[in-house]
C-alpha cells in the first residue's frame, strides 16, 4: 500500500493521527448504545448548546487550509455556542485510524482512503461524516511538456504523488486517462513529498505529478510541464471529518453539535469571496498560524452552503483502488457499500428544519 505522506495544503490521502488522550473530557461516561438503536438527532443549523460543557478531541496532522471550517468555527466561537471546547491533537499519520477506533481521539480531519476502508472492513467503527470542503481549484495533474499533447501519451508513465494512488486524485487521473483510451492501471505511481514533486518533474525522474499550491505557479513559470487535469469530480474532495465510536454511537448528539457548528461556519463565513473579508482572513491566519499575506495569496477553497456527501465518487474510488491492486486488503466480492464508510445522518439532520419551526410548518422541511 502506498505510504501516506503529510501534505501541508492538500486534504487528499491525509490520515490524521492522534496521540493517546481522553476524548470528551469532562463528560460523564455514558453506556454505549447498540448499533441497531435509532437515535433522533437535533435538526437545523442554529446552536443547540449541550447540557454540559464538553471537550471533543480532534486529530489534525497540520494546520492547513483544508481544515479552514474547523479552525474558523473554533476562532469565531461557533463551538462555544454549542458548549463545546475543541482539543487539538497532532501526531504521525499512521496512528490515526487506530486512535479513532479505540476511542483515544473522538474525531479526525482526514480523508476517505484505502487505509480507512481496510480498517472498516476489518471491523473498526469509523465513518466519514462531513467533507472538509468540496473543491480546490489550485490542485491538479501536471504533465511534462513532451507528454502533454494527449492522455494516450501517458501509457506506462510514472506519476508522482504524495499519497501514491490513494485519495481523490485517483479519480482525476483516471478521468484524464480515460479521455485517451487508458485507465489507472496503465500508469504507475511513485511517492514523493509534496515539496519534491516539482523537482522530480523538472529533472525527468517522473512523467507527471499531482501538484498543490503554491508549487503550480512555479512549475508553469519554469515551462517544463503544464496542468492537464484539475480535481474531479467537482463537489467531492475526498477530504473528510471522521468520527470514531464515541461520536457515532455513545454521544451522537455531541457529534451532531460538532457537524452543526462546522456546517454553519461554512455556510455563513466561507462562501465565494470569503477572502475579501479582512476579519475572516485574520481569523484564518490566527487559527492556521499562518501569515495574513499567505492566506490572502492562496486560492479560495470551495465550501458548500449546504453540506453534501456524494456516494458515487466515493464508490468509484473504491473501485479504482481494487482495480489498481495492492491497496485494499479485500476483493471485489467484499466491496463495501457506501453506507459502511459514509454516515450522512448528521448532515441530513442539519438540513432538516428544527421541529416546530416555521419552515417545517410551511412544508419546507
Global Rg = 20 Å
Largest sheet at a glance?
A: 5 strands, mixed
Average per-residue pLDDT, rounded, comes to: 87
Portion in helices: 25-40%
Gross morphology is: globular
Our count of domains comes out at 2
In the CATH classification, which architecture of the largest domain applies?
3-Layer(aba) Sandwich
Give the secondary structure arrangement, pairings included:
Elements: E1 54-59, H1 68-75, H2 78-81, E2 84-89, H3 96-101, E3 107-111, H4 114-121, E4 127-131, E5 140-144, E6 158-161, H5 169-178, E7 188-191, H6 197-203, E8 208-211, H7 215-222, E9 225-229, E10 239-243, H8 245-250, H9 252-269, H10 278-288, H11 292-297, H12 311-324, H13 345-350, H14 358-361
Parallel strand pairs: 1-2, 1-3, 6-7, 6-8
Antiparallel strand pairs: 3-10, 4-10, 5-8, 5-9
List keywords for this structure.
365 residues, alpha/beta, D-Maltodextrin-Binding Protein, domain 2, 2 domains, five-stranded mixed beta sheet, 14 helices, 10 strands, disordered C terminus
